[in-house]
Amino acid sequence: MEYGWFDKPVPISLGISGLGIRGDVYNVSNARQAADILLNRWPTAGTIKHRDARYACLQVLQGLRKPEVAREAFVEAAREAGILFDDFVS
Length: 90
Hints:
Blueprint: E1 5-14, E2 24-30, H1 31-40, H2 48-61, H3 67-81, H4 85-89
Antiparallel strand pairs: 1-2
């Protein structure tokens, strides 16, 4: 079964948010982890970037696309949702 390993993990913060409080930080290392988070724990489900990231991850898991495509889509969706950890520390 395909995992779609990313060349570099994507750090995101899930859980408590707002007022400068971050939740738990997760280093998402592959398309399987990203798809699980997108499907089950995403704070802003339903946006176009969220949908595109889900689709890209599922295509990687089916062996139809390269993991880099899913990683980039996941980063963009995470940035839009305000959970990309790199954005907190920049």
